[in-house]
Amino acid sequence: MIDFTNFPRRNKTYAGANGKKISVLYDGEQYMLKFPTKSSINHNMSDANGCISEYLGCHIFQSVGIPVQETLLGTYTSNGKEKIVVACKDFAPDGLSIQDFASLKNTMIDSVYSGYATELVDIVRTIEEQTAIDRQILSDRFWDMFIIDALIGNRDRHNGNWGFLYNGRTDEVWLAPVYDCGNCLYPQADEETIRSVLLDSQERNRRIFENPCSAIKINGQKINYFKFISSSENKDCNRALKRIFPRIDMKKITKIVEYTPFLSDLQKDFYMTMLSSRKDKILEFSYNRLRRREQNISEDGE
After folding, report:
1. How far is CA 297 from each of CA 53, 240, 300, rounded to the nearest angstrom?
2. 153-166 residues labelled b (16+ CB within 10 A) or e (exposed)
3. Which residues neighbour 77 within 8 Å (Cβ) at sequence distance 6 or greater?
4. Among the listed ranges 96-100, 108-112, 145-149, 184-188, which one has the minimum average pLDDT value?
5. Dihedral-angle region of residue 249 (phi above 0 means left; psi in -120 to 50 means alpha; beta otherwise)
6. Cα of 62 vs its chain's centroid, Å
7. How far apart, in whole angstroms, are the C-alpha atoms of residue 35 and residue 78?
8. 14 — pLDDT class (breaks 50, 70, 90)
9. Sign of CA dihedral 28, 4, 69, 59
10. d(CA 224, CA 210)
11. pTM, entire model
């Protein structure tokens, strides 16, 4: 556990609505420290567990081989109060800037939607029509993120928190690592909620099959992860499921949770229960259903 309190501060600032952020130097590298936000839903909690969620979500992305920001957990003391913080390594050094997908979407001048509108049809259209980056690479990243976001229950993967690195000198653009996973894994669940979910299968299933939903929408409605993935109706999503699901190693994820600082045994049990359940009931169910459908189509074709 690292105490970031007295590490050198930098003047670089970071935008975004999800919590306070400062820049520090750690081990010769620049990091963004993210502080916990006030719990907006569960008023029994003083602070949400978004820093823990950020750390866990990023390490789970890393475990399946998707490029992701490096994260560390530690503490920071201000005005005598110690906070758990997550340190996110700055992946946009001098000369590079982060451009979110919303900014790319804004280049679609004939679109009736804004850059931050999350209608799936408009996102897909942007991916297909933009010319800054290879369309297949961009599509694969979007759907790969969607599959892992389904696993970790990310309710906030919008157009403003994924995107690209831009080199202003060379005009080159490439995919940025995945970042901003602070709204995954039920960050507003306190101990009472956790115990209820662990003891009550109906409460558990509600948090698997109903909430959280994706921030991406179809006809104004947020996508239900289970219904959308298990329907096998989107070919790009199907390809991502077949690409990503075999990479999910629950032994690796168990080690990530087990060695995460600050977690109680109750929290570890909760995270592993929900991750295992979401993997089995959403992704494995959908994966096996898709393979059966493809096999039946193949046999009928013969």
Report:
1. 40, 19, 5
2. bbbbbbbbbbbbbb
3. 3, 5, 83
4. 108-112
5. beta
6. 11
7. 11
8. confident
9. positive
10. 7
11. 0.94
Residue 288 near residue 232 (C-beta atoms within 8 A) = no
Mean pLDDT of 281-300: 90
C-alpha distance across the termini of the chain, in Å? 59
Short-list 76, 33, 40, CA closest to 55: 33
pLDDT for res 108: 87
Tokens of 194: 């956790």
47: pLDDT strictly greater than 80 = no
- The 3-class SS string of the chain reads CEECCCCCEECCCCCCCCCCEEEEEECCEEEEEECCCECCCCCCCCECCHHHHHHHHHHHHHHCCCCECCEEEEEEEECCEEEEEEEEECCCCCCEEEEEHHHHHCCCCCCCCCCCCCEHHHHHHHHHHCCCCCHHHHHHHHHHHHHHHHHHCCCCCCCCCCEEEEECCCCEEEECCECCCCCCCCCCCCHHHHHHHHHCHHHHHHHHHHCCCCCCEECCEECCHHHHHHHCCCHHHHHHHHHHHHHCCHHHHHHHHHCCCCCCHHHHHHHHHHHHHHHHHHHHHHHHHHHHHHHHHHHHHC
**Triad 103, 106, 111: Cα angle to 5°:** 155
Cα–chain-centroid distance for residue 143?
A: 12
Q: Six-digit token pair at 31?
A: 């990091």
Answer whether the bond into residue 212 is a cis peptide, omega within 30°. Answer: yes
Question: Tell me, what amino acid is at 234?
Answer: N
The structure tokens listed for 20 are 């306070």
Residue 154 tokens read as 């990310």
**Amino acid in the structure at residue 12:** K
